């Protein structure tokens, strides 16, 4: 247990000292950084991390596949409890933060005043900062989820969460769940999902969450992924699963399933959400759209994945292409609400594999890199489970 002592209006002393795991370069183990004193500005809060989960982007960073400003504290999917608050600190719903609140928070920190924030895209704020992505600097050492504590800055969307919801369900809310909701918002802006045929390419946590949300909205959902266990999970959600590598005679082939849907009165895919980032999946998602359909690109977050498109085909089919990267605070609120009402019927907790203590973060990242689990957990002070 950590104890928190205020030594002034702004300064907070935590005993034992908060520890953040700092990443410097590929192939080098993380270094532990102690931060005995934390200065909270007005509107800020200090949260003790209950559980963090490893996003695939964290794995790509430690492999050297993503540009990173080092040294940095990775991790942007987590749930925790408020242990100190600065003057005027509030949740996204306007309610003052209180000690003991169990919360999740946005991956982004936005100013709320620039032209992008005021026109509804705060996730691309002109002065954007992101948890788990920023170079460690004095005054914000606790800036990522792979730590015992995280310092929440002004401009962070903070959402209180239920005490009964498992941490394995809640931790990914601030990345995978909220991004999934933003993707379906982009689709439903053009297409009524109730009764529509929806294709989801990629059955990582975003793809499976999109599928669960689309089923809840009344859509007929097809999920495409090469991994048999993830296809099985998708079927458990009420979706039809297809294998992009299936042979022509396989019932799991996409064109076979689409033909069956047409016979049932669903002649066209009206929404396709691409979550894998694979160029072949992007082509499949956009190429499968029927007249008036909308394709939402979510997974293409790495360079070098160019895809050739036929603009005439897009024009003649009246296809809309939308792109989603991160989300708004209001979408995080709705994402949490989805988890709170659905976690008993949708076993999201089963998608998180072993949970490692913070000191074994490098082992946890190595396990996450194998792809055996959709997510791997990291919990301060925990033994491997």
TrEMBL record:
The keyword Oxidoreductase applies. Its EC number is 1.1.1.1. Its cofactor is Zn(2+). The keyword rRNA processing does not apply. Pfam families: ADH_N, ADH_zinc_N. GO terms for molecular function: alcohol dehydrogenase (NAD+) activity; zinc ion binding. Keywords: Metal-binding, NAD, Oxidoreductase, Zinc. Residues 42-154 form the Alcohol dehydrogenase-like N-terminal domain. Residues 206-331 form the Alcohol dehydrogenase-like C-terminal domain. GO terms for cellular component: cytoplasm. PROSITE patterns: ADH_ZINC (PS00059). Belongs to the zinc-containing alcohol dehydrogenase family. This is alcohol dehydrogenase. It comes from Agromyces ramosus.
């Amino acid at each position: 247990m950590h104890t928190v002592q205020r030594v002034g209006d702004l300064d907070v002393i935590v005993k034992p000292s908060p520890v953040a795991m700092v990443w410097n370069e590929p192939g080098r183990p993380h270094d532990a950084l102690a931060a005995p004193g934390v200065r909270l500005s007005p509107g800020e809060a200090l949260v003790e991390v209950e559980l963090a989960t490893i996003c695939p982007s964290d794995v790509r960073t430690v492999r050297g596949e993503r540009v990173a400003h080092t040294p940095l504290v990775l991790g942007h999917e987590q749930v925790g409890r408020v242990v100190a608050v600065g003057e005027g600190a509030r949740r996204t719903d306007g309610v003052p933060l209180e000690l003991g609140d169990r919360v999740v928070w946005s991956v982004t920190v936005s100013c709320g005043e620039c032209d992008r924030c005021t026109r509804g895209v705060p996730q691309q704020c002109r002065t954007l900062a992101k948890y788990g992505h920023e170079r460690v600097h004095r005054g914000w050492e606790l800036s990522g989820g792979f730590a015992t504590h995280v310092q929440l800055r002004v401009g962070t969307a903070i959402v209180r969460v239920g005490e009964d919801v498992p941490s394995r369900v809640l931790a990914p809310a601030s990345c995978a769940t909220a991004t999934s909701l933003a993707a379906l918002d982009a689709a439903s802006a053009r297409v009524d999902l109730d009764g529509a045929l929806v294709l989801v390419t990629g059955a990582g946590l975003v793809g499976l969450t999109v599928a669960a949300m689309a089923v809840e909205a009344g859509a007929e959902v097809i999920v495409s992924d090469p991994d048999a266990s993830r296809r099985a999970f998708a079927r458990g959600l009420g979706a039809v699963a297809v294998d992009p590598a299936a042979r022509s005679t396989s019932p799991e082939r996409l064109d076979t399933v689409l033909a069956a849907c047409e016979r049932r009165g669903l002649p066209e895919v009206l929404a396709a959400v691409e979550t894998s980032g694979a160029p072949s999946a992007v082509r499949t998602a956009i190429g499968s759209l029927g007249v008036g359909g909308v394709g939402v690109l979510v997974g293409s977050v790495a360079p070098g994945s160019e895809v050739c498109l036929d603009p005439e085909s897009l024009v003649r089919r009246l296809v809309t292409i939308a792109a989603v990267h991160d989300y708004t605070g209001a979408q995080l609120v709705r994402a949490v609400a989805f988890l709170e009402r659905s976690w008993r019927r949708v076993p999201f907790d089963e998608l998180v594999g072993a949970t490692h203590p913070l000191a074994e973060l490098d082992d946890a990242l190595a396990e996450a890199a194998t792809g055996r689990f959709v997510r791997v957990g990291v919990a301060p002070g925990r033994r491997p489970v």
